[in-house]
Amino acid sequence: MGHTPTVAMIDVLAPIWQRVLQRSSVRPDDNFFDLGGEPAAAVQLFSEIAKVSGRELPPLTIYQAPTMAALAALLEQPTPTRFPTLVRMKAGALEPPVFITHGMGGSIMEIFHLVKSIQTDHPIYGLQSNGFESNEEPISRVEDTAAIYLEAMKKVQPRGPHALIGYSFGGLVMMEMAQRLRQNGERVVLLEMLETFPHNNLLPLAQRIALFAGRVKRHSGILARLPMRKKMSYLASRSERLNASWNHGTEAVPPETGLPDGLALERYKQAETLALLRYRPSFYAGKINYVRAARISSSFPDDPRAIWQNLAAEFEIDTLPGDHFAMVSSHCESLASLLSRHIAAAFSGE
């Protein structure tokens, strides 16, 4: 970072790190994740840091500054540095690396448990959208996000073969990246799309009708549970309805994203919603490995094949336990095992 933290700031942070990580001692260069840190601990860590320092940083910052020394240096800067687009989430001795990205309105933190559970000697890098910070303009086109990701990716892997994994909305971004790489003569040996769907406007009529009925049923259920004074507010406020539907009709608790609530996050979500509406997937002249959740979410169609099978030269689908959120959190072991096998197979000829 170009800044050496003062002993005073490290002394402020040390007891917080020890308490949150339940360690008797933590050295300045100890890595948060190596000490057993995970998203919930990061949320607690930054909450306590805000109380003593007056600086409110998103828990996602732990990827940017994973040691006490790095975090102290960041806190002593007058303004925080911009969160990087590319973050190494898992170390590995073999090349080439694997690249993965998150879902709509989320962050790489939501796939923390999944990445941790993947068994591979190839390093895994997370690609993070911008626009969740208050001073940034969020991107509202999949194509623009893909271009930014490709530029960041080239810094660690100038040439193929490339392995790309996208969760939910992130699958569209990875598909666009794969298209561009292939058009430039690059090899894409793995394109993995996890519970990815285009905007409902692109679905067959029967699926659109079924999803609309599901949304009506879901909103009716929410209205029935609200007190009378809040019913009109819910009906009048699109943002309230959007937030209520952000769980895609699933029953699982959404994974921790490490992003702060507020206007910036709302703008970020709205921009990605607009990007989803605008994007029109084109035919992919390669293979898509698709993973669907066994428990179908009411926001998604029940047959991914009807959408994707005719948009790829090869299409292979696997169904795994859980729902849209649980498959990357409480049921992530099944998905991680599948991805581990797919990564090994993709690179087996290299």
Strand order of the largest sheet: 1-3-2-4-5-6-7
How many domains would you count in the coordinates?
A: 2
Shape: globular
By CATH's scheme, which homologous superfamily of the largest domain applies?
Answer: Alpha/Beta hydrolase fold, catalytic domain
- Which strand-content bin applies to the residues? 5-15%
In whole angstroms, the N-to-C terminal distance is: 35 Å
**Contiguous runs where pLDDT drops below 50 for at least 5 residues:** none
What is the overall pLDDT average?
86
Structural class: alpha/beta
Number of helices: 13
Radius of gyration of CA atoms, rounded to a whole number? 21 Å
Number of strands: 7
Name the helix and strand elements from N-terminus to C-terminus, one letter apiece: HHHHEEHEHEHEHHHHEHEH
CATH top level label of the largest domain: Alpha Beta
CATH topology of the largest domain: Rossmann fold
Largest sheet: 7 strands, mixed
Helices and strands in order, then pairings?
Elements: H1 7-21, H2 39-53, H3 61-64, H4 68-75, E1 86-90, E2 98-101, H5 112-117, E3 124-127, H6 142-154, E4 162-167, H7 169-183, E5 188-194, H8 205-225, H9 228-236, H10 238-244, H11 263-278, E6 284-293, H12 305-308, E7 312-320, H13 332-347
Parallel strand pairs: 2-3, 2-4, 4-5, 5-6, 6-7
Antiparallel strand pairs: 1-3
Structural overview:
This protein is an alpha/beta fold. It has 2 domains: 7-75, ACP-like (Non-ribosomal Peptide Synthetase Peptidyl Carrier Protein, Chain A, Orthogonal Bundle); 86-202 and 273-347, Rossmann fold (3-Layer(aba) Sandwich), CATH 3.40.50.1820. 43% of the residues lie in helices and 13% in strands. The protein has 13 helices and 7 strands. It has helices at 7-21, 39-53, 61-64, 68-75, 112-117, 142-154, 169-183, 205-225, 228-236, 238-244, 263-278, 305-308, 332-347; strands at 86-90, 98-101, 124-127, 162-167, 188-194, 284-293, 312-320. It has a 7-stranded mixed β-sheet with strand order 1-3-2-4-5-6-7, sandwiched between helices. Helix 6 crosses helix 7. The mean pLDDT is 86.
